[in-house]
From TrEMBL:
The keyword Protease applies. It comes from the Bacteria. One of its GO terms (molecular function) is peptidase activity. InterPro entries: Lon_prtase_N, Lon_prtase_N_sf, PUA-like_sf. It holds the Pfam family LON_substr_bdg. GO terms for biological process: proteolysis. This is ATP-dependent protease. Residues 11-203 form the Lon N-terminal domain.
Amino acid sequence: MIQAADLPDTVPVFPLPGALLLPRSRLPLHIFEPRYLQMLEDSLKTPQRLIGMVQPCSRQLQDDALHEIGCAGRVTQFSETEDGRYLITLSGVSRFRIEQETDGFTPYRRCQIDWDGFSRDLGRVEADAKFDRLEFLDLLERFFLSRNLSTDWEALKDADDELLINSLSMMLDFDPEDKQALLEAPGLATRRETLTTLIEFALLGGSNEEVLQ
């Protein structure tokens, strides 16, 4: 388990719209672009094996602008395909705030970052004392039916609060800006409230942009 003292000041970043990583959660990724293959190779040579997942800013004039807050994950699984691609799993470690992008000779982007303010991410699994699971699952079932989605409902019922909320936040198909709002939620209860609002508004057929502005 990574300790705060082990966290580096600079991490490689992977800007991928809609791909959300949260602390203590797992994100599978398919790596095939040469620059990100190099990023993976370089990351595996470091003790922490960290890669920072960041949402690009869709509302900025600059095409390469990034949101300030991302989440770093440790490469915990990887396998190579016959044609040189990699299937990897990132295990979420902690969120961070980008201070500045660093210059260098790598084909991928690297950022100097600050971990302050996210010490909770390195702690124990969070619980949500005010979570009404039955009401939430009823809402979720209506959402899944409206999208013709299926799931293992018994597994959802048995999952602990954090696993349930974080997994749904990562998997459900919301806009990148909405994913960013879920990432920036200060705690599990706030993330659950944000997720509930997004689901409710989607059921009403509204625009997600109108919800979180």
